[in-house]
Structure prediction request, 250 residues.
Amino acid sequence: MTKRMWRQGGWYTVGVAVALGLFTPAPSQAQITRVSNSSSEHRQAVGVTLGGFFLKGEDSRVDDDVLYNDLDSLLFDIKDFNGASVSGEWLVGLNDYLEAGVSAGYYQKSVPSIYRGRVNANGSEIEQELKLRVVPLAATLRFLPIGRGGIEPYVGAGIGAFRWRYSETGEFVDFADDAIFRNRYIANGTSYGPLVLGGIRFPFGDALSFGGELRYQWAEGDTNPSDSGLLGSKIDLGGLNAAVTLHVRF
Prediction:
């Protein structure tokens, strides 16, 4: 009797162990699958940035810069060209710590100016409008030091193609005979240069993030003064972009 009871209890124990062995791996595998899927979620994002573009100051502009040279005769300030900028971008996560992106932006600013110490015969100011437009296209690579998910600080670098146009329109003085005349001078082109960036993103719900970013670019354009009539052979397109960011992850 005792032997039979032991056998029954033994087979019962083995049966329970087998059942546990069969059913226990299923939830563990599901958990592994969920972790794997979680790490691959939100590998891409689209976003917009809204902020300002701040040109390099008078003391650090490239040699023979047209804006710097204009300061000899026209009354304005380089910082008058600081203005709003907007861009859109597409980001792709390469792994938990690296991210590639492409972006396109837009900046334009018109600045009024007048001649220093010279006026029209009737005493009115000799006025001009200086206008600069830059459309940057950039490819970047970013490093996320604490990984993806949650709060995401990042640093990065890239290369930009800057489509630009600069113009001066209004009244001008011919210093040979002090004649005052109306004209417009225009130069445009596409320039290339490096950029560096850094920022931070904060999650907002499951698919949104917002944050801030600083981006500094270096580039200069050729104004071809023999054709454009401008008072400088270069225009410095370098400067700082400071922006708030909003991204939708998918």
Remarks:
- The first helix runs from residue 2 to 23.
- Residues 1-40 have pLDDT under 50 and may be disordered.
